[in-house]
Amino acid sequence: MAQYAFVFLPKAAVLLNALKTFNDKRYLSIFLFGISSGFPWIMIGSVLSAWLKDEGLSRSAIGLFGIIFATYSFNFLWSPLVDKIKPPLLGQRRGWIFAMQGCVVLLCLVMSQLTADQDLFYVALIGLLIAIASATQDIAIDGFRIDCIAQDDKDGMSAASSVATAGWWTGYGGLGAIPFFLADMTSWTWPNIYLLLGALMALLMCATCLANEPQIDREALLEKITAKDTKQPPVFHWIQTTLVTPFAEFFNRNGVKLAASFLLFIFLFKIGEAFLGRMSIVFYKEIGFSNSDIATYSKLLNWWVTIVFSLLGGLVNIHYGIYRGLMIAGVAMAASNLLFALIAQTGPSTSLLAITVIVDGFTGAWSTVAMVAFISLLCNRAFSATQYALMASLSVAGRTLVASSSGFVVDSLEGNWSLFFILTAVMVIPSLCFLYSIRHHIKRVESP
């Protein structure tokens, strides 16, 4: 027995040492900004899908509404402006975050005045505008998180990624359960629920005012990278350093081939999960789960599971490295998709749903923590928001552009949900093969 104790003690010491990384006030702000980042996905995702389903729209039509999320795949196009233009209040990062949160609040008020049967076009338009404001807010939030952590602090980056992931799922899962409980237990309509969503976002604006702006001299960092041509007109220099240099620096630093490999892996990794996520609410309703079941298991249980595994995932990345975290999460991701296929065969079993949600929460948390930490380490502090947006947009592209066709896939399978979820599990395999092929490069990024 004593020999096992000696084996365990070093592991406990390592665990305690890793936990000390989280003892920093900066992580509270990162957590709260994570909530603000995940919350809008409820407005244009789960709530909107449930609303449209209750109005009788087809699976294909609801799936097409997912094109709204394409905004998150293209936000890198205007991310240089978020890095360059400083708002008049609250600083570079907080100023942008506060302004976009205010836009979301106003758009929720407008959405509450619409009806899906008569104002479907305007419902889609307001959903698109919420996505634009949310995607712009994400650029600033990601830049805030990266700017808070030192360039060479790998442990701090993993800790920040896990806290941000826990916050995102608190906004998406914890706060996201409220609308479904209200829909089942009160006389609130879906438009009325948007009033509450706007009020909750207004509360999150208060947290933005209380955060500390990270102190980064971006102009000094930029001068080290680019030499100003005195013969070049100032406006041309501004355009070049704002719109061209951030992307050129990423490819120059890593080399075109390796940089393209990183981007391809980031795009492939979560395509299967994206297809599953886009149709999950429709699947729950069709298989026979109530709104309360969705709120309890898909939102609340998933929320707590994700928080726990986000923090554990951060500890794993700190001790074992990002590559192992990504590989473990990828294998588990395929397994969790197969559990959804089992639910399609057995029917609305809440016990099986609970098991599936726990496994799915584990995979979602670990994969996100590892991916966020990996992308963050690839960023130069002079262009943290821009370069992160470039790579994160590819990570989101699968769930926005490609996964918008998920409704057509289910329809083409004649509603065979089991086969659909098996296909999403198979989609994970190419990314795992690619991950293995670039493992040495990932480990080199972790230990420069």
Short structural summary:
The chain has helices at residues 2-19, 26-54, 59-64, 71-74, 79-84, 92-111, 120-148, 154-174, 177-185, 190-210, 218-225, 234-254, 256-268, 271-287, 291-320, 322-346, 350-377, 384-400, 406-412, 417-426, 428-437, 439-446. The protein is mainly alpha-helical and 448 residues long.
In words, what does this structure look like?
The chain has one domain: MFS general substrate transporter like domains (Growth Hormone, Chain: A, Up-down Bundle), CATH 1.20.1250.20. The protein has 22 helices and no strands. The chain is mainly α and 448 residues long. It is globular, with a radius of gyration of 22 Å.
